[in-house]
Amino acid sequence: MLDMDLGVLLPSLIPSLQSVYVLVFYFVYLAVAGEILPGKVIRGVVLSDGSQLRYRCNGLFTLTLLVAILGICAKLGIVSPLVVADRGLELLSATFIFCVLVTLALDVSGRSSLDKSSSLKPHVSGNLVHDWWFGIQLNPQFLSIDLKFLFVKAGMMGWLLINLSILAKSVQDGSLSQSMILYQIFCAIYILDYFVHEEYMTSTWDIIAERLGFMLVFGDLFWIPFTFSIQGWWLLHNKVELTVPAIVANCLVFLTGYMVFRGANTQKHIFKKNPKTPIWGKPPVVVGGKLLASGFWGIARHCNYLGDLMLALSFSLPCGISSPIPYFYPIYLLILLIWRERRDEEKCAEKYKEIWADYLRRVPYRILPYVY
Ligand code: NDP
């Protein structure tokens, strides 16, 4: 796909009816499954008006059922497992058009809302482009479905479905390589782990602070599935020979990244629920009764970002170092997380004041100890 010339590329960007059907089926399935399949119901953070939203965390069930349904349909010849790999560009442009249409609809309905609650109150700056880009409402709903939660799920699941279709294509082509297997395994673990810990996402910045505009919708539905899978597309067209030490090193980067990422996020989650829970077998070091300063949170102020960056690197290393294209995701994530870490520090400095200043003295590094 990546080495197509423009004459082939442009026509294949025009969405066919089939790609529209794929998207419609996908969103209808996710919306219905999200509402009816069993899952732990989690209360979101307390919003400024004291209200709390409820999130049904059944993503893992929704995803495994979908993969099982698609697997059976593929076996029966009802759908082709290659549908995404063969129609990647069409699906990409259809998804982009969907993002534009849905955010225009959100803009119109948000402006006309008379709701005064924190989640639905309209925020209108008067600048049309700004409002469309950043969104009008915090947690808009459609048929009482929380659209933000739905889109976050759709993006992460979409990434796995694209990868599985790429895998099927490489098996069919006879080009399945060790690199492809490593890339697929690492991403699948990361995505499944995301849904195992889906409840943690209900307290992330995107869910609690960002309004639902083009920036977030595009990020969830287009950016995550289509750009995080670049390594897979690239491996379909490029052969890489990995040595045994390279495979071992790649696995070590993945495992260390996973341990730091999941360990740091879990420690913070547990600390917020019960600040007395031991960290690494010892009573936690707590600053001002509010901030955790031991475990991963005593090593650097955003060790979770460090783990995420190592994981991102491990998804690209199977592609070798002959091209920068497969390194798009880790490079993008590095820029995003450095920017996000700065914004988060500003927010925390304002919220925690002298407690935050004390935390900075105890834990001087932002992401990578002794470097940054
Ligand atoms: P964090 O999970 O790091 O949350 C930051 C918040 O945690 C702060 O605002 C503060 O909130 C609280 N906090 C900070 N330090 C402490 C401390 N020492 N003790 C207790 N609480 C603390 O940020 P994100 O929501 O940005 O990220 C969540 C995960 O998502 C991360 O692992 C990140 O890597 C990942 N992510 C992945 C992306 C991708 O594209 N792959 C993009 C963005 C994020 P409070 O005011 O509530 O105390």
UniProtKB/TrEMBL annotation:
Location in or out of the cell: Membrane
The cross-references to PROSITE patterns, in alphabetical order and at most eight, read: STEROL_REDUCT_1 (PS01017), STEROL_REDUCT_2 (PS01018)
Domain of life of the organism encoding this protein: Eukaryota
Pathway(s) the chain acts in:
Steroid biosynthesis
Name the InterPro entries on file.
Answer: ERG24_DHCR-like, Sterol_reductase_CS
Could you tell me the Gene Ontology terms of the biological process aspect for this record?
A: sterol biosynthetic process
Residues in a coiled coil are: none
Predominant localisation class: membrane
Q: Keywords in UniProt for this one?
A: Lipid biosynthesis, Lipid metabolism, Membrane, NADP, Oxidoreductase, Steroid biosynthesis, Steroid metabolism, Sterol biosynthesis, Sterol metabolism, Transmembrane, Transmembrane helix
Q: Name one GO molecular function term.
A: Delta14-sterol reductase activity
Topology class, membrane:
Multi-pass membrane protein
The main enzyme category here is oxidoreductase
Q: What is its EC number?
A: 1.3.1.70
Transmembrane intervals: 20-38, 59-79, 91-109, 150-168, 180-196, 216-236, 242-261, 282-300, 320-339
UniProt keyword Transport, yes or no? no
- What GO CC terms are in its UniProt record? endoplasmic reticulum membrane
Q: Which family does it belong to?
A: Belongs to the ERG4/ERG24 family.
Quote the protein name from its UniProt record.
Delta(14)-sterol reductase
Origin species, per record, is Microthlaspi erraticum
Q: What is the lineage of its organism?
A: Eukaryota, Viridiplantae, Streptophyta, Embryophyta, Tracheophyta
